Amino acid sequence: RMGFTVAIDGPAAAGKGTIAKRLADHYGFAYLDTGLLYRAIGRVAAERGLDLDDGEAMGAVARALDPAVLDDGSLRGREAGELASRVAVHPAVRSALTEFQRGFARRPGGAVLDGRDIGTVICPEAEVKIFVTASAEVRARRRTAELVAKGRSVDYATILQEVRARDERDSGRAAAPLKAAPDAALLDTSELDIEDAFRAACRIVDASP
Ligand code: C5P
Protein backbone atom coordinates (compact mmCIF):
# COMPACT_ATOMS: atom_id res chain seq x y z
CA ARG A 1 0.00 0.00 0.00
CA MET A 2 1.42 3.39 -1.03
CA GLY A 3 1.93 6.03 1.64
CA PHE A 4 -0.29 4.29 4.14
CA THR A 5 -0.01 5.70 7.68
CA VAL A 6 -1.02 4.03 10.93
CA ALA A 7 -1.12 6.52 13.83
CA ILE A 8 -1.03 5.04 17.32
CA ASP A 9 -1.43 7.23 20.38
CA GLY A 10 -2.03 6.66 24.05
CA PRO A 11 -0.64 7.09 27.55
CA ALA A 12 2.60 5.56 28.83
CA ALA A 13 2.68 1.77 29.25
CA ALA A 14 -0.68 1.06 27.59
CA GLY A 15 1.05 -1.30 25.15
CA LYS A 16 1.14 1.01 22.14
CA GLY A 17 4.84 0.47 21.43
CA THR A 18 4.49 -3.29 21.32
CA ILE A 19 1.34 -3.10 19.23
CA ALA A 20 2.91 -0.58 16.84
CA LYS A 21 6.02 -2.70 16.33
CA ARG A 22 3.98 -5.87 15.75
CA LEU A 23 1.77 -4.07 13.23
CA ALA A 24 4.81 -2.73 11.39
CA ASP A 25 6.32 -6.25 11.18
CA HIS A 26 3.03 -7.79 10.12
CA TYR A 27 2.25 -5.32 7.33
CA GLY A 28 5.87 -4.67 6.31
CA PHE A 29 5.66 -0.98 7.27
CA ALA A 30 8.45 1.17 8.71
CA TYR A 31 8.13 1.94 12.42
CA LEU A 32 8.90 5.14 14.33
CA ASP A 33 8.69 5.36 18.11
CA THR A 34 8.30 9.15 18.34
CA GLY A 35 8.80 9.14 22.12
CA LEU A 36 12.48 8.47 21.39
CA LEU A 37 12.77 11.90 19.77
CA TYR A 38 11.63 13.64 22.95
CA ARG A 39 13.71 11.28 25.09
CA ALA A 40 16.86 12.08 23.08
CA ILE A 41 16.28 15.81 23.42
CA GLY A 42 15.72 15.52 27.18
CA ARG A 43 18.87 13.45 27.52
CA VAL A 44 21.06 15.84 25.51
CA ALA A 45 19.68 18.85 27.39
CA ALA A 46 20.32 17.22 30.77
CA GLU A 47 23.85 16.19 29.76
CA ARG A 48 24.62 19.77 28.78
CA GLY A 49 23.18 21.09 32.02
CA LEU A 50 20.59 23.18 30.18
CA ASP A 51 17.38 24.46 31.75
CA LEU A 52 14.62 22.06 30.66
CA ASP A 53 12.01 24.75 31.22
CA ASP A 54 13.68 27.08 28.71
CA GLY A 55 11.58 26.54 25.59
CA GLU A 56 13.93 28.42 23.25
CA ALA A 57 17.00 26.48 24.42
CA MET A 58 15.10 23.18 24.13
CA GLY A 59 13.91 24.16 20.65
CA ALA A 60 17.53 24.70 19.61
CA VAL A 61 18.47 21.24 20.90
CA ALA A 62 15.51 19.77 18.99
CA ARG A 63 16.47 21.49 15.73
CA ALA A 64 20.01 20.09 16.01
CA LEU A 65 18.88 16.55 16.85
CA ASP A 66 20.61 13.82 14.87
CA PRO A 67 18.15 10.94 14.36
CA ALA A 68 21.10 8.52 14.59
CA VAL A 69 21.04 8.95 18.39
CA LEU A 70 17.64 7.22 18.49
CA ASP A 71 19.34 3.82 18.38
CA ASP A 72 20.65 4.28 21.93
CA GLY A 73 18.80 1.63 23.95
CA SER A 74 19.32 3.47 27.22
CA LEU A 75 16.83 6.11 26.02
CA ARG A 76 14.03 3.71 26.91
CA GLY A 77 14.63 3.99 30.64
CA ARG A 78 12.51 5.80 33.22
CA GLU A 79 14.79 8.81 33.62
CA ALA A 80 14.77 9.60 29.92
CA GLY A 81 10.96 9.28 29.90
CA GLU A 82 10.69 11.81 32.66
CA LEU A 83 13.04 14.24 30.88
CA ALA A 84 11.10 13.67 27.65
CA SER A 85 7.77 14.68 29.11
CA ARG A 86 9.34 17.88 30.44
CA VAL A 87 10.85 19.01 27.13
CA ALA A 88 7.74 17.85 25.21
CA VAL A 89 5.65 20.70 26.64
CA HIS A 90 7.50 23.30 24.54
CA PRO A 91 5.95 24.30 21.18
CA ALA A 92 9.45 25.06 19.80
CA VAL A 93 10.48 21.46 20.50
CA ARG A 94 7.34 20.00 18.97
CA SER A 95 7.47 22.11 15.81
CA ALA A 96 11.15 21.21 15.27
CA LEU A 97 10.14 17.52 15.13
CA THR A 98 7.05 17.86 12.94
CA GLU A 99 8.61 17.67 9.48
CA PHE A 100 10.77 14.66 10.32
CA GLN A 101 7.74 12.76 11.60
CA ARG A 102 5.55 13.73 8.63
CA GLY A 103 8.27 12.71 6.20
CA PHE A 104 8.54 9.36 7.94
CA ALA A 105 4.75 8.89 7.85
CA ARG A 106 4.67 9.37 4.07
CA ARG A 107 7.21 6.68 3.26
CA PRO A 108 6.02 4.91 0.12
CA GLY A 109 6.04 1.50 1.79
CA GLY A 110 3.74 2.51 4.65
CA ALA A 111 4.55 3.56 8.20
CA VAL A 112 3.44 3.09 11.76
CA LEU A 113 4.14 5.93 14.20
CA ASP A 114 3.39 5.84 17.89
CA GLY A 115 3.28 8.73 20.32
CA ARG A 116 0.84 11.15 21.90
CA ASP A 117 -0.20 13.49 19.07
CA ILE A 118 0.23 11.46 15.89
CA GLY A 119 -3.48 11.22 15.04
CA THR A 120 -4.30 14.72 16.28
CA VAL A 121 -1.39 16.91 15.11
CA ILE A 122 1.28 15.09 13.12
CA CYS A 123 -0.88 12.95 10.81
CA PRO A 124 -4.51 14.00 11.08
CA GLU A 125 -4.97 12.45 7.61
CA ALA A 126 -3.63 9.03 8.63
CA GLU A 127 -5.54 6.14 7.05
CA VAL A 128 -5.73 4.40 10.43
CA LYS A 129 -5.79 5.95 13.91
CA ILE A 130 -5.80 3.88 17.06
CA PHE A 131 -5.91 5.24 20.60
CA VAL A 132 -4.52 2.58 22.94
CA THR A 133 -5.45 2.87 26.60
CA ALA A 134 -5.53 0.82 29.79
CA SER A 135 -6.31 1.77 33.36
CA ALA A 136 -3.49 3.44 35.30
CA GLU A 137 -3.44 0.46 37.69
CA VAL A 138 -3.00 -2.07 34.89
CA ARG A 139 -0.29 0.04 33.26
CA ALA A 140 1.57 0.44 36.55
CA ARG A 141 1.33 -3.31 37.19
CA ARG A 142 2.77 -4.09 33.75
CA ARG A 143 5.54 -1.53 34.11
CA THR A 144 6.45 -2.87 37.56
CA ALA A 145 6.57 -6.46 36.28
CA GLU A 146 8.75 -5.38 33.34
CA LEU A 147 11.24 -3.64 35.63
CA VAL A 148 11.28 -6.47 38.15
CA ALA A 149 11.98 -8.90 35.29
CA LYS A 150 15.00 -6.75 34.43
CA GLY A 151 16.24 -7.18 37.98
CA ARG A 152 15.34 -3.68 39.22
CA SER A 153 13.96 -3.22 42.69
CA VAL A 154 10.91 -1.02 42.21
CA ASP A 155 7.61 -0.97 43.98
CA TYR A 156 4.15 -0.77 42.48
CA ALA A 157 3.05 2.31 44.45
CA THR A 158 5.97 4.38 43.16
CA ILE A 159 5.39 3.29 39.57
CA LEU A 160 1.65 4.01 39.83
CA GLN A 161 2.49 7.50 41.04
CA GLU A 162 4.88 8.01 38.10
CA VAL A 163 2.29 6.76 35.62
CA ARG A 164 -0.32 9.17 36.99
CA ALA A 165 2.07 12.12 37.06
CA ARG A 166 3.07 11.44 33.44
CA ASP A 167 -0.59 11.16 32.37
CA GLU A 168 -1.34 14.47 34.00
CA ARG A 169 1.59 16.28 32.41
CA ASP A 170 0.91 14.81 28.95
CA SER A 171 -2.86 15.43 29.05
CA GLY A 172 -2.72 18.79 30.78
CA ARG A 173 -0.19 20.62 28.61
CA ALA A 174 -1.32 23.32 26.17
CA ALA A 175 0.78 22.13 23.19
CA ALA A 176 -0.52 18.94 21.56
CA PRO A 177 -1.96 17.36 24.71
CA LEU A 178 -2.52 13.62 24.85
CA LYS A 179 -6.00 12.92 23.56
CA ALA A 180 -7.74 10.66 21.11
CA ALA A 181 -8.48 12.07 17.66
CA PRO A 182 -12.25 12.25 17.15
CA ASP A 183 -12.06 9.56 14.46
CA ALA A 184 -9.61 7.25 16.29
CA ALA A 185 -10.58 3.67 17.12
CA LEU A 186 -10.28 3.09 20.87
CA LEU A 187 -8.40 0.00 21.97
CA ASP A 188 -8.53 -0.63 25.72
CA THR A 189 -5.93 -3.26 26.58
CA SER A 190 -6.76 -3.47 30.32
CA GLU A 191 -8.19 -6.97 29.93
CA LEU A 192 -6.22 -8.11 26.89
CA ASP A 193 -2.92 -9.90 26.62
CA ILE A 194 -0.51 -8.79 23.92
CA GLU A 195 -1.71 -11.37 21.36
CA ASP A 196 -5.33 -10.32 21.72
CA ALA A 197 -4.39 -6.64 21.63
CA PHE A 198 -2.37 -7.19 18.46
CA ARG A 199 -5.21 -9.11 16.81
CA ALA A 200 -7.68 -6.35 17.72
CA ALA A 201 -5.32 -3.77 16.19
CA CYS A 202 -5.03 -5.85 13.00
CA ARG A 203 -8.82 -5.92 12.71
CA ILE A 204 -8.87 -2.13 12.95
CA VAL A 205 -6.22 -1.80 10.21
CA ASP A 206 -7.93 -4.37 7.97
CA ALA A 207 -11.28 -2.60 8.33
CA SER A 208 -9.85 0.67 6.99
CA PRO A 209 -11.01 1.63 3.50
O1 C5P B 1 6.16 7.16 24.57
P1 C5P B 1 7.27 7.54 25.51
O2 C5P B 1 7.07 7.07 26.90
O3 C5P B 1 8.61 7.17 24.99
O4 C5P B 1 7.25 9.15 25.54
C1 C5P B 1 7.99 9.86 26.49
C2 C5P B 1 7.36 11.24 26.64
O5 C5P B 1 7.57 11.99 25.43
C3 C5P B 1 5.85 11.25 26.83
O6 C5P B 1 5.49 11.13 28.19
C4 C5P B 1 5.45 12.59 26.24
O7 C5P B 1 5.56 13.62 27.19
C5 C5P B 1 6.46 12.82 25.16
N1 C5P B 1 5.93 12.53 23.83
C6 C5P B 1 5.15 13.48 23.21
N2 C5P B 1 4.69 13.29 21.95
C7 C5P B 1 4.95 12.15 21.29
C8 C5P B 1 5.71 11.13 21.92
C9 C5P B 1 6.18 11.35 23.20
O8 C5P B 1 4.87 14.53 23.79
N3 C5P B 1 4.50 11.99 20.06
TrEMBL record:
GO cellular component, as recorded: cytoplasm
Binding site for ATP: G10, P11, A12, A13, A14, G15, K16, G17, T18
Domain annotation Cytidylate kinase: ranges: 6-200
Location in the cell: Cytoplasm
Primary location recorded for the protein, binned into one broad class: cytoplasm
GO MF, one annotated term: dCMP kinase activity
UniProt key word ATP-binding: yes
Endoplasmic reticulum listed as a keyword: no
Keywords: ATP-binding, Cytoplasm, Kinase, Membrane, Nucleotide-binding, Transferase, Transmembrane, Transmembrane helix
GO biological process terms held by the UniProt record: pyrimidine nucleotide metabolic process
Highest taxon of source: Bacteria
EC assignment: 2.7.4.25
Catalytic activity: dCMP + ATP = dCDP + ADP; CMP + ATP = CDP + ADP
Record family assignment: Belongs to the cytidylate kinase family. Type 1 subfamily.
Protein name: Cytidylate kinase
Organism field: Aureimonas phyllosphaerae
Portion of the full sequence shown: 148 to 356 of 362
